[in-house]
Amino acid sequence: MKPPPDDVLDHELMAAVGRHDHRAFARLVERHYGWALGFVDRMLGNRHEAEDLVQTAFLRVWQGAARWEPNAKFSTWLYRVLNNLCMDQLRVRRVMASEPLEGGYVEGLADGAPNGEDRVSSQQREARTHAALDQLPARQRAALVLCYYEQRSQAEAAALLGVSEGALESLLSRGRATLRKWLQD
User: Fold this and answer.
1) Global pTM?
2) Distance of CA 117 to the CA centre of its chain
């Protein structure tokens, strides 16, 4: 889901949030929470972590609103905050994954309830895709999520990631090739 059109309203709302206007903050959250959660959920592949991270991002909006300069669209700024938080979370995951677990457990799969064959097949395909996305390097994953799930243009995605369009195309190309290979195996 793409963010709503970012216009003067967001700048006005941020100015009001800078003055600790709770209603303006609620309006900003209402306007941007849905797409922000979708983006983070696709980046992390974990809805609970995504909800926590989006809340953290909006806490940063509240805390930093007084210092915010409208040099860019609010949604662009929020994407960067979200992307940085995702990258931090993914780094934490890599560190934790490299440490041995003591007495850990693996969450169970489905509850065993019978499902239709099509639904199971679809869920398996989706799970494989999410698992493959989770294995990609974070920048490749971010590029794919922005361009394919968030339907951002390559110019927008490159700006959000702070890379050139050529570098973005390289990230997309490597990410697609790796996904294709993993999903064909």
Assistant:
1) 0.63
2) 30
Q: Which amino acid is at 9?
A: L
**Paired tokens of 114:** 């019978």
Per-residue pLDDT reduced to its tens digit, 30-70: 999 999 999 999 999 889 999 999 999 999 999 988 888 88
Please list, in sequence order, all residues whose beta carbon lies within 8 angstroms of the beta carbon of residue 28, skipping any fewer than 6 positions away.
10, 13, 14, 17, 58, 61, 74
Position 23, amino acid: R
Q: With beta carbons less than 8 A apart as the criterion, state whether 14 and 64 touch.
A: no
User: Contact, 163 vs 170, CB < 8 A?
Assistant: no
Residue 63 CA to chain centroid, in angstroms? 21
Q: Which amino acid appears at position 72 of this protein? A: A
